[in-house]
Design goal:
Chain lengths: 544, 186
């Protein structure tokens, strides 16, 4: 199995390399798509390979051959591999869709030559965040994908996009600063940012300090994942971007935040002291998000609000802190990535055919484009949780896990999620009725729907349906993923086989550094009052 | 054993940087937000230095006693963070410039769609409210409808109301009266 570890860095390396190549080929708009599509196909293949391989145990790569706690390492366990596979399938579909859109429209949504490199960098950033076994490397992954997303969300630099982009970028930068502060605090407390080593060291430190670290990390990730009350930026900024960009953002970016929450909550803070807070946050995210969606008239904004709302479901699963809850949450993430992206792609088609995204203006599309009606209907029902689609299965899993937990708060959440599903259904059916059945205000102009756009959308919907039909094995996979999350030791021992060092070579220096690295932790464990940001302590002795 | 007691000068500097940064980020003008982000980023970088423990000898094996070396890892992280912040700052600066190009100011505008929804809600409110028993007190939705953004430029409601009661009168007003302003308004 160790022969296969070379696959692990591929999802990061291939897109980055291809990004450089497409950038160099910026004068050759015909070659660029070939490069980026083949890069993403390779990424998809390697992700699926990882998905299969990781089922036998996590694959670990010490980057550059440096042993784990000193060097950076990439870890592909079941959770990362699953996220990676779903996300690379989605990215590929969106790329194909945007290519067709670029061919057929000459408007501002057409991909300019910078589109391909940034899209690939985005995909590399997402993969890096999923694979990283190091908290600081997760930060770097976040920044890679954020930098790319900044370019994508302001593509073309029109007035609206600059306005929307400003909000998005400032919020993203603030959450990055928060993440940095959290990282500094983590390092000051434990002397490491390696996830596996943190899992070993964090239980030794003072519970109060640990709680502070947990809150800081959760805050940073909650902004990224758009958890109420830190979600207001999302419906404000997503809808103005081009349809494929919104689609890939909706599918992936918030989920990277959710992934980071799952990873840190399960691996670093398994005692679940903030579970009640997370439960309430989940409830508020669900209910307030969906109420926002019900009020909306613009279909893209409506979908952005449902996106926020359904983050609450995943958070609910995480906050249950049980194996069943985590399994359901992981399945729900996979389901939601595909469904939400598919819906945004369909709305791109709706905008193209109907000439608007406003529900008061749209109408009569069922007659003009019956295919579109079906394309919208299936993922909409899926999101609403109509049996037997994957949304239903994910929600059923969550409800079951909630009832198993049996606490009054869990029951409140169960009721809340049922209400949210109903309201989702209401909002989406209303949107469907208005867009497809009401009599149109203006005479619709005949617009072709190119196969290049319909094809990837349909493919994505089929992926959503595959999640339904293959739910048995897939749910079993997420349950295995959740069980290894519960165990924690699988992850830790895979990264640090002897509890001290990874498998890389860091030769002679290793002993010295190992000694040096252990000390801050030892010092802190004995003396938690010396935590950073704990107010001005007495001045440090004179510098050497 | 590494001395982890933080340096008071650094701690105070971090506090000042964060306070100033937060204040600036709350401003409406993008260039002030930009400076705020830079200050916040630098505050976080200093925090990393504190996290590395006491300053010491250069961390090169063989040059000094290991016990007296600085911890190189947080410094490496700070370098990464500085580079990233630099890139982000450049992008934000470009965006502020683009915003100025388009609209002759770099203020972050309110969401137009948000207020449209608020207006719809206010209409509903009027339709359902009982005018006889209710006081004339404005509902929240109505207030939201009335509230306007100094950089709105009549995008939502036609015509600019006379009384502009905003604190940053200079920028908003100067530009509002410029003839070129109308052209960019769709």
């Amino acid at each position: 199995m160790s022969d296969w570890t070379w696959v692990v860095p591929l999802p990061v390396v291939i897109p980055l390399f291809a990004a450089g190549l497409t950038l160099a080929l910026w004068r050759r708009p015909r070659v660029q798509p070939v490069v980026s599509v083949s890069a993403l196909v390779l990424v998809l293949l390697s992700s699926v390979t990882l998905l299969v391989l990781a089922d036998d145990g996590p694959l670990v790569v010490d980057v550059g051959g440096w042993a784990a706690p000193v060097g950076i390492n990439l870890v592909a366990d079941r959770l990362s591999a699953l996220m990676l596979s779903v996300s690379s399938a989605v990215t590929l579909c969106v790329l194909l869709y945007s290519l067709a859109q670029g061919r057929d429209d000459d408007e501002e949504s057409a991909p300019v030559s910078i589109y391909h490199p940034t899209f690939l960098v985005l995909s590399a950033g997402v993969a890096n965040a999923f694979l990283s076994g190091d908290l600081f490397n997760i930060y770097v992954g976040f920044e890679i994908l954020l930098a790319a997303s900044f370019v994508l969300i302001t593509l073309g630099g029109t007035r609206d996009r600059i306005r929307a982009g400003t909000i998005y970028i400032v919020v993203a930068l603030l959450s990055s600063v928060l993440f940095l502060v959290a990282l500094a605090a983590v390092y000051a407390t434990t002397g490491t940012v390696n996830l596996a080593q943190l899992a070993l060291r964090l239980p030794e430190i003072d519970p109060g300090t640990r709680l502070t670290l947990q809150v800081l990390l959760l805050l940073a990730f909650a902004v990224k994942a758009a958890i109420f009350p830190l979600s207001a930026w999302l419906p404000d900024s997503y809808p103005t971007a081009p349809a494929p960009v919104t689609a890939v953002f909706a599918g992936l970016l918030t989920k990277v935040g959710v992934y980071a929450i799952i990873r840190t909550q399960t691996l670093l803070f398994p005692d679940g002291r903030l579970d009640d807070v997370l439960m309430w946050a989940a409830l508020a995210t669900m209910v307030i998000g969906i109420l926002g969606a019900v009020a909306q008239d613009d279909i893209k904004r409506l979908l952005s609000f449902t996106l926020v709302s359904h983050i609450g479901f995943m958070l609910f699963g995480i906050a249950l802190s049980s194996q069943a809850g985590w399994a359901a949450a992981i399945y729900y993430v996979a389901h939601h990535i595909t469904v939400q992206t598919a819906l945004f792609l369909v709305v791109g088609l709706v905008e193209r055919v109907g000439g608007s995204t406003s529900l008061t203006r749209l109408g009569g599309l069922a007659k003009i484009a019956p295919v579109l009606a079906i394309l919208f209907f299936v993922p909409a029902m899926n999101l609403g949780g109509i049996p037997p689609l994957s949304g239903f299965l994910g929600k059923l899993g969550l409800l079951q896990a909630g009832v198993d937990a049996g606490t009054p708060l869990a029951y409140v959440l169960v009721v809340g999620s049922v209400v949210t599903s109903l309201l989702t259904l209401y909002a989406l059916v209303k949107a469907w009725n208005k867009a497809f059945w009401q009599s149109p205000q203006d005479e619709p102009r005949p617009v072709s729907m190119p196969f290049g756009m319909v094809g990837p959308t349909a493919a994505l919907i089929v992926v959503g349906l595959v999640l339904t039909f293959a739910a048995g094995p897939l749910y079993a996979y997420t349950e295995r993923a959740a069980s290894s999350l519960t165990l924690r030791t699988t992850y830790v021992w895979a990264v640090l086989p002897d509890g001290e060092r990874g498998e890389g070579e860091s030769a002679d220096v290793s002993e010295d550094e190992a000694g040096e690295h252990d000390e801050p932790a030892g010092g802190q464990a004995g003396d938690p009052a010396g935590a950073p940001a704990g107010g001005p302590a007495d001045e440090a002795g004179d510098d050497a | 054993m590494i001395d982890m007691a933080p340096n008071i000068t650094l701690v105070v500097a971090i506090g000042v940087l964060f306070a100033a940064g937060v204040y600036l980020v709350l401003e409406r003008s993008l260039s002030r937000v930009l400076i705020g982000v830079i200050l916040l980023g630098n505050g976080a970088n200093l925090l990393f230095l504190v996290a590395g423990g006491r300053a010491g000898r250069p961390p090169i094996v063989g040059l000094a006693d290991e016990r007296r070396m600085s911890d190189p890892l947080p410094q490496a992280m700070v370098l990464t963070a500085i580079v990233i912040t630099l890139g982000m700052t450049a992008f934000l600066l470009a965006m502020a410039y683009r915003s100025w190009q388009l609209q002759r100011h770099d203020e972050v505008q309110d969401d137009v769609e948000d207020r449209r929804i608020a207006r719809l809600a206010a209409i509903d409110e009027r339709a359902t409210a009982d005018a006889d028993t209710e006081a004339t007190r404005q509902s929240l939705d109505e207030e939201a409808e009335e509230a306007r953004d100094e950089v709105d430029d009549g995008l939502v409601r036609e015509g600019r109301p006379e009384g502009n009661q905003h604190d940053e009168a200079q920028q908003g007003d100067e530009h509002g009266d410029e003839p070129g302003d109308e052209e960019v308004t769709p």
